[in-house]
Design a protein that fits this description.
It is a single chain. The chain is α+β, with helices and mostly antiparallel strands and about 425 residues long. The protein has a domain of about 290 residues: Clam (outer membrane lipoprotein receptor (LolB), chain A), CATH 2.50.20.10. About 15% of the residues lie in helices and about 30% in strands. The strands form 3 sheets. The protein has a 16-stranded mixed beta sheet that branches. It has a two-stranded antiparallel ribbon with strand order 3-4. Strands 13-14 form a two-stranded antiparallel sheet. It starts with a helix and ends with a helix.
Amino acid sequence: MNATIKKLTALSLLLLPVLGIADPIDDSFFPYANEAPTHEGLNPGMTVNSGNVDQFEDAIDPELVAMVKNGWVELEVGETTSFDLHPNYIKVSRENEGKVSLGDQVGEIDGWVAGRPFIGEPDADDPRAGEKLAWNYKYGYNWGDNAAIWPFYWKYRNMNTGSVERTLKFRFHFLNFLGRVNQEPVPAITPNPSNLFRGIYLQVLEPYDVKNTQLLIQRNIDDLKRDNAWLYLGFQRRVRRLATGQVTDSFLGADIMIEDFEGYNGRVSDMKWNYLGTRNILLPFYNHNELELDQETHSDDDGYQVVAFGGKGGCFPNITWQLRKAYEVEAVPVDSNHPIGKRVFFMDAQTFTLPRTNIYDRAGKLWKTWMIGQAHPDHHLEKNKGTGVSIDDSFAMIDLQANHCTTGQFKGQLDPKLNPTSLFNVQNMRATGR
């Protein structure tokens, strides 16, 4: 059946429903159109805790099961809901379905213009199935064509005592130069002499000792080329190019490295990708406006309130978890000197975001666990409604070996006015740093 579908023309794809054949595009983008996944005894509104987690072990990733068993966190179960991506992203994915292929080596891809590169279920017999899923993440609709996280609070926490050791306030900006589907200009920003795919810019706003630290990442469309990255340190008042190895160092003393941003912020070619299987598991998806939010800190003038935290050490977001279809993918660094041994991602099959990741050291022992809460755009800021973006809305990076965590509370905004192209060049860093 899969081979037959791949040979269908664009015209015959329109006839699939008539012929009684599943539409691979609809299956990929609307996995809950006919029914939501279920698990015996696991119902919306209930709480999974140390007393009942044993009966749900196959519906929770194993490292999270251990934390629940230890009484570190309880998981409130929410209703599984569809996070529909923007119709334009789905449309261009349909138009380009079957036109994309992998190159001879990892990091090479041919025929991609925009949208989801590889449609259809991963094949366990395909040795490059994991790599295809990695491309679906890289070219996913994560933050759409551009977005800003502003304000963005990082808190460094002692997991044993629960004390907040330090709070940093940031602004983050993302801009896709190519593969744009929704916000003008479409499909690309021109001129683009460096052939950039994406720009990432951040600035530290507080506290004083690191204020005005800036990071700029320019990602080339050619995955085999290394990112251009620069760091501006306020106390030095100069821009310097970021060395390749620094993307795997602790960023500003946090439990996070630059390579961890958004779940994974490296190249496809930096990893060996292995598809481990498909599962229905609890993932941190929710409606922000329906949560019991942080009533004490970080409330904006417009009334927006961030996600509250609790659990052991205050290291866990107080959110709901949905039973969702996920692809389990292992990423092993190509560089033997890389500080980690592997990452295991639980990639959401509808949005291709990375809401759950477990990170292991080179000895194979669990080192860190990473959760990124995904908020539905229609239950968030007014400006985010209808954008089709699964909004990164909270995070926790927990270092199990150090008993420490870094948490994130933030305000994601889909607003092109906040992301001019002028932000994403070195000259802006120098001008902002004066």
